[in-house]
Amino acid sequence: MEWDGRKAVANQKKHGLSFALAERFPFESALEALDPESEDHGEERILAIGKIERAFYALCYTRRGEKIRVISFRKATAYERRRYREGG
User: Fold this and answer.
1) What is the pLDDT of residues 52-88, one digit of tens each?
2) Angle at CA 16, nearest 5°, toward 7 and 66?
3) Do residues 53 and 67 lie in contact, with contact meaning Cβ atoms separated by under 8 Å?
4) What is the greatest pairwise CA distance in the chain?
């Protein structure tokens, strides 16, 4: 997993979360969907909702070869938590 250092600092300020926590993201049980803003960025971005310990998180990422590149990481919204619990 990789990320841009400046983006990580901005994410920490905006969402209060370190990208380092995203390394524990449970991809195997996550609910994933194509980020609707992918086309605006010229790359396929995935929005994944998953649970780390007792909290739900939203991870936006893209794949670069074999690497996962973190774009943003935040707590999941109530709507996202509900979708996760309902299985999509």
Assistant:
1) 999 999 999 999 999 999 999 999 999 999 999 998 7
2) 45
3) no
4) 35
- Beta strands (DSSP E) in 6-87 are 31-34, 46-52, 55-64, 67-75
Residues 2/67, Cβ–Cβ less than 8 Å: yes
How many CA atoms lie less than 13 Å away from 69 in the CB half-sphere? 13
Contact 69, 61 (CB under 8 A): yes
pLDDT digits (tens, 9 = 90+) for 26-51: 999 999 999 877 777 778 999 999 99
DSSP annotation of 24: T
